[in-house]
């Protein structure tokens, strides 16, 4: 197997993992601090992509589209938290699942009504359309390198926010013991709203930046939401560090499995069998990874102790 191919797929896996982290970090904060199972988190990812694609098409500026998508989605997230989620905080997880699943249906139908059923096209910025020579014999997408840099920068900023600011102190206190934090004077309602706004904004960044790579279409949030839940279970519910490690593991394993397993099976068995078995096993790999991790660490890699 050529070394350049391995490096290329490793870069792809890390890039996808960092984008997945933006989605999973907000989700694990919402679940770990607010104790809310928010199935509609993927819908915010979808809205971020749609807002970004629409504004980018209208203005001709990809980055204006990304900025608008993040701001508009954060505003939708705040409205969602104030109007709907506050009513389900005190309810059990089944009620939260039913309520947020209903929101998925509402958001999907609203997107169909506004944008139609067809997918939207979102182009890579012209200045990033050419490959960059990262290693001898390895040209790599300049846009994907930017995604790597943006994902790493936002991950670092999020860690600084959580570990070096008063809001971060409140967030960590709430993740460890919400009732005790509230008893000690933490303004838990404002923290909830801010956490949800940040969560929505991060998911919008992922949706907007992945728009040129993946299809901007109705229901695009559901598949990636499943991966995000796998990530937070792997890393430990409420742990941002766990979300980062889990996202990178899932991104690399998923990308490497899809790239290397089909040709490997083609060498070992009949082509018609390999063509069906390879993609199937590749899609199952991340769930096998989750099962192995949970067997040895049932609370995830970096559990938040309450």
> SSE order, as H and E?
HHHHEEHHHHHHH
Q: Label the structural class.
A: mainly alpha
| Overall helicity | over 70%
Structural Rg: 20 Å
For the record, give the distance between the C-alpha atoms at the N and C termini, rounded to a whole number.
Answer: 46 Å
Report the major sheet: 2 strands, antiparallel
In order across it, which strands form the biggest sheet? 1-2
What does the overall shape look like? globular
Strand proportion: under 5%
Number of helices: 11
Number of DSSP-assigned strands: 2
Low-confidence stretches: none
Arithmetic mean of pLDDT: 86
Question: What tags apply to this protein structure?
Answer:
mainly alpha, 11 helices, two-stranded antiparallel ribbon, 306 residues, 75% helix, 2 strands
Characterize this entry briefly.
75% of the residues lie in helices and 3% in strands. The protein has 306 residues and is mainly alpha-helical. Helix 10 (240-268) packs antiparallel against helix 11.
Structure write-up:
This protein has 306 residues and is mainly alpha-helical. 75% of the residues lie in helices and 3% in strands. The protein is built from eleven helices and two strands, in the order H-H-H-H-E-E-H-H-H-H-H-H-H. A two-stranded antiparallel ribbon has the order 1-2. A hairpin with a 2-residue loop joins strand 1 and strand 2. Helix 1 runs antiparallel to helix 10 and helix 2 crosses helix 9. The longest helix is centred in the N-terminal third of the chain and has 32 residues. The mean pLDDT is 86.
């Amino acid at each position: 197997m050529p070394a350049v191919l391995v490096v290329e797929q490793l870069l792809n896996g890390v890039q996808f993992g960092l984008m997945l982290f933006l989605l999973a970090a907000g989700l694990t904060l919402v679940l770990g601090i607010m104790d809310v199972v928010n199935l509609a988190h993927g819908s915010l990812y979808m809205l971020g992509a749609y807002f970004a694609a629409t504004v980018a098409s209208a203005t001709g500026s990809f980055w204006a589209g990304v900025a608008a998508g993040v701001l508009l989605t954060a505003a939708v997230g705040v409205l969602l938290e104030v109007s709907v989620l506050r009513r389900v905080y005190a309810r059990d997880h089944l009620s939260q699942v039913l309520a947020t699943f209903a929101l998925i249906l509402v958001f999907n139908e609203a997107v169909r009504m506004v944008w139609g059923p067809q997918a939207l096209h979102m182009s890579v910025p012209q200045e990033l359309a050419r490959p960059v020579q990262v290693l001898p014999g390895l040209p790599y997408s300049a846009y994907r390198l930017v995604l790597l840099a943006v994902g790493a920068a936002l991950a670092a900023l999020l860690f600084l926010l959580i570990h070096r600011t008063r809001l971060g102190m409140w967030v960590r206190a709430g993740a460890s013991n919400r009732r005790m934090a509230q008893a000690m004077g933490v303004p838990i309602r404002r923290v909830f709203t801010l956490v949800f706004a940040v969560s929505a904004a991060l998911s919008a960044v992922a949706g907007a930046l992945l728009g040129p790579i993946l299809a901007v279409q109705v229901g695009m949030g559901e598949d990636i939401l499943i991966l995000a839940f796998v990530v937070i279970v792997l890393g430990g519910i409420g742990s941002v560090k766990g979300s980062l490690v889990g996202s990178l593991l899932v991104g690399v394993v998923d990308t490497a499995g899809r790239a290397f397993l089909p040709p490997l099976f083609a060498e070992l068995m009949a082509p018609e069998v390999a063509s069906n078995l390879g993609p199937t096993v590749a899609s199952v790999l991340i769930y096998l990874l989750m099962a192995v991790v949970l067997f040895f660490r049932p609370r995830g890699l970096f559990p938040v102790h309450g």
